[in-house]
Amino acid sequence: MKRITKTGEVAVASEVGRNSIGGLVSIPDDAIPEEHPLRLNTYTIPPNYDITVEKFEEYAFSRLQLLRAVENASMKFQREDELSKAIKTAEDKWMPLHSNESAGAYSLLEERRRDQAAHFILRLAFCSTADNIRWFVTQECLLFRIRFHLEMSRERSDFLKRTNSHLIPVDPSEKTAVLEHLRKCSPGKEMDDFFKVPFEFVPDLVGRRGVYVHKGYAYVPKGDSFSIVMTRFKENLEFWMERTARELPSLRDDRLLPLLRLASTHFPLCMQNLYRRGLQDNHLKYGGRQQLGLFLKGVGLPLEEAILFWRRLFVPKSGEDGFTKNYLYNVRHNYGQEGKRVNYGPYSCSKVILGSTPGVGDHHGCPFRHASAERLTDMLVGYVGPSGTKLSGTQVQEIGEMANGNHCQSACTRLFEYTRRPDQPTGHIETFSYPSKFFEASVKLTKKAPQ
């Protein structure tokens, strides 16, 4: 591609660039990086280089700001030129990408690596829920569309060749030979640029006779060709987002479950019982799932981690499809993401005590109210506080007698005192009204303890 400078010189775009004051500069042979020869990227290959934690955070923040700006622009502007201008302005601010013409003035490799890494960082961050995936794909597709349309014609053609998009630019001599057929099949379309694509990739265009088909190829006008590229980009992104969502739990399980096991030492007896039975059986009935799930939500477990926890708990028995079909909706519903989108809170002690009586195979409810004397004794003997404190035989008997007298919340509070404040007098803590308050008080007390 040639262009005329202000002085009348003819310059070849692939051989020259502009410096910061607008003058022409020669582009070194190695200025256009082999690793990222074009700024357009379909993100099919993840980065394989190291970045610092600081850059990781910087890249993620900048990309997120860019995608938010893309979303805002799409809601504010209807005209394509205004939309393109707004997104280009945001891109220049948060994540600039210069063309190969600017190779002498900017580090193209650094810019394109940053763009690639930032995309994959947010892909990991947004793959945990369907809503996040939908938002991320929508903004990335719009950003890709604007970038493609603003790209120079030569680099667009190079991009199509390099990405194996099955779009083959039609050279002028071939176009001249079939020009009459192209005009008949594409009336009103510009006759400038056409691409050949295997006809099976454009069944809609073939079906409505919107393209000329010859020797197995459909001749697609430039205006229609981008829809093929865009469709492939979106399908590829959705596929890998969904696959990452399925595989990410296996990468994070080793981190989450030890944290929950540590946190469970702060659980009251009812929640510790549910947690352990869930781990043991890889299953909890509805009452147990509700009681434990809303408790975990109440003590700060976010939705993404909750889905990960329940998936890890149930998949060994239910399988991935069984978990998605039978349990995922309920988890999301508890967090207000399904149904009436109510923001449910954790069960109070009164609700746990006076709620439905556990049946065979159930583990919900209050052990001080619903467990047999023998079962309660076994649970108390096996209960260990955060610092490793266990109950003495006398303490087990005292708490059991309180439970037998239907003083369930007082018995639970006494359990807290004996296992968290063993050297202090009892009866000085306000009776807990929520299991989540038991947890919060235990964590707070542990943080205050001398190291």
Automatic annotation (TrEMBL):
State if Kinase is listed as a keyword.
Answer: no
Where in this chain does the entry annotate a coiled-coil region?
Answer: none
Q: Does the keyword Cytoplasm apply?
A: no
**Cellular component terms (Gene Ontology):** alpha DNA polymerase:primase complex; nuclear envelope
What does this protein need as cofactor?
A: [4Fe-4S] cluster
Q: What name goes with this protein?
A: DNA primase large subunit
Q: Where are the transmembrane segments?
A: none
UniProt cross-references to CDD domains, sorted A to Z: PriL_PriS_Eukaryotic
Q: Which Pfam families match?
A: DNA_primase_lrg, DNA_primase_lrg_N
**Location of the DNA primase large subunit C-terminal domain:** 262-422
Entry's Gene Ontology BP terms = DNA replication initiation; DNA replication, synthesis of primer; double-strand break repair
Species name:
Paramicrosporidium saccamoebae
Q: Which InterPro entries match?
A: DNA_primase_C, DNA_primase_lsu_euk, DNA_primase_lsu_euk/arc
Top-level taxonomic group: Eukaryota
Protein family per UniProt? Belongs to the eukaryotic-type primase large subunit family.
Molecular function as annotated in GO: 4 iron, 4 sulfur cluster binding; DNA-directed RNA polymerase activity; metal ion binding; single-stranded DNA binding
**Which keywords fit this entry according to its UniProt record?**
4Fe-4S, DNA replication, DNA-binding, Iron, Iron-sulfur, Metal-binding, Primosome
From which lineage does this chain's organism come?
A: Eukaryota, Fungi, Fungi incertae sedis, Cryptomycota, Cryptomycota incertae sedis
